Amino acid sequence: MMNESLIQSKISEFDRNGVILLKEAFTQSDIELLISGLPPTEELGKDFYCLKQNSDNYLCRIMHFHRYASQETLRLMGHPQINSIVSQLCGESFILTADMMIFKHQNCNARIPWHQDFVDNLNIDRIITIGIYLDDSYSNDGGVRFIRGSHKERQNICKFEHKNGHLNDLITLNVEAGDIVIHDPMIVHSSEIMLDQKLRRTLYYEFRSERDVKFRASWPESFLENRKKLYKLAQKAYIEKLPRQDFNKTILQCYESKLPIIPPNYCSCL
Q1: What does the domain layout of the chain look like in residue ranges?
Q2: β-strand 94-105 against 56-63: which pairing, if any?
Q3: Pairing between strand 94-105 and 189-191?
């Protein structure tokens, strides 16, 4: 398990490069608990996105993950490790603004093109995306790749997309289950197809400062209150098991408010 001083030493690296890798952030038992609480996928809801290939559907993304997953998975969000990381990068008053799980399958050869998750021109405080890896990820088998320092402004993504693999300032990472990768949503990143590994799952959390959320006039006030309630619920779930009926009612309330769609920045040629 990492400690606070290690996180602090990485902050300048994050600001400079736009991405950091933290090894052994969570134990194997933490990851197993998360895997055991994954939602059933027999009846896919509107927040479940699939890719179709050769007449087969492959689940690739679950938005609003904790709305569907078991109560036990919420313990990970409320883990002191998350609190320590986010408070150092975003300040003590922070808000979880997104939670989703991404699935990558061996038999679904979906390449993720170069992109920025979104472009933000306000630059109030740091915005971070924490990727918690449930499975290993290798740089030579479809692991995510980043362009160092590309998070500071809107990028012309086509210049990366058409480089045909010859890219300067490329960051590749070998990640093991239990590691986390923290990236600025504006850093340019992509991943190639996965040929050897059968399945890769990553849980993503996006965090911002409360000040950042309050500054955005188009975001409903109820979103801030509901997300505060969600994080408090996660912290409580870390300490004790909550009555199922109370948990189910509260978790639905936490996801009642929706945000305006913030489009990613992809190459216009695609």
Answers
A1: 4-266
A2: antiparallel
A3: unpaired
